[in-house]
Every structure is written in structure tokens, then in C-alpha cells.
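Q&A log
Question type: sequence-to-structure
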Amino acid sequence: MQEREKQFERLFHSEYGRMYRAAYILLGDEDEAKDAVQDVFARLWDGRVTLHEESQRAFLLTCVRNRCLNIIAQRRRQQETASQLALAVTEEQGPWLGKSDDELTSMVQQYVDEQLSSQTSRIIRMHFDDKQSYKEISSTLGISVSAVNKHIVHGLRKLRNTFNRKQA
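Response status: OK
Response body:
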């Protein structure tokens, strides 16, 4: 085993527990805490993060804290987006006014997951949940910006049509 790998393994074993506990306190979810710590170690392994011997622990904990704050912000954006989608779909829809935001959000999310194509669903989530621009999405997926636009327009149209039909 190379020296770099040995150092990484020692660091992982000595700091993982502390980093996991910090992430769990911030996120309150075991799986998300494990993912946050794993992301930090993956970045360290890939060389995207460089550590200095004297400040390893503080730096790692700061990285974990920042990753957790990003996860919390992403959660909040997803909830806001789902609420906005639900509101847009149900504007001026009398029967929908009695539904709670959580019920509407759940209905829209379920529809996006189950009724739209996987590509359209993925693009809608990338745009609305992750707040990615059309250009960022096209770059990530290797498709044109106009294809991204078509998927979003198509998905939103299907949402509106479906939910408008259900009110009748």
C-alpha cells in the first residue's frame, strides 16, 4: 500500500466517528450524516481538498459542517420548489384549496416521479430542486439547452393538464 493510502486510511479511522457525530447533530438523519462525511472524504481522496498536518481535525470538521449546511439548504429549496409547483398547478382551483401544502407537494412530487419520463423528471428536479440553470443541466446531461427547455415545458404542461382535469 502506498504511503498516501496509508495516511488516508489512518486519517479516516481516526476522524470518521467525530465527523459523523457532528454531521448527525446538524442533520438529524443517519444516512445523510454518513453521506456528508463520505462526500468530504471523497473530495479529500480525489485531491480536491488539501490538508495541513497541524489543522486536519478543524479543517475536516469545517468541511463536514459546510457540507451539512449545503444539504439543509438543498432540503429547504426542494420543499419550496414543490410548494411553488403545487401552487402553480392549482391556482384558481376551488377543490384544491382545501388541501394542505404538504398534501399538494406530495401529490406533485409523486406525479413527477411516477408519470413523467425519467429524463423529464430528472430535468425538472435539477432545475426546480437543485436550482440549476438550463445551461448547467444541458452540460451535465450532454443535451442541448433547447432539449432541456422542451422537457421542462412538457413536464409542466402535463402537470397542469393532469391536475386541472382532476378538479372537474
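Response note: The chain has two domains: 3-73, 91-167.
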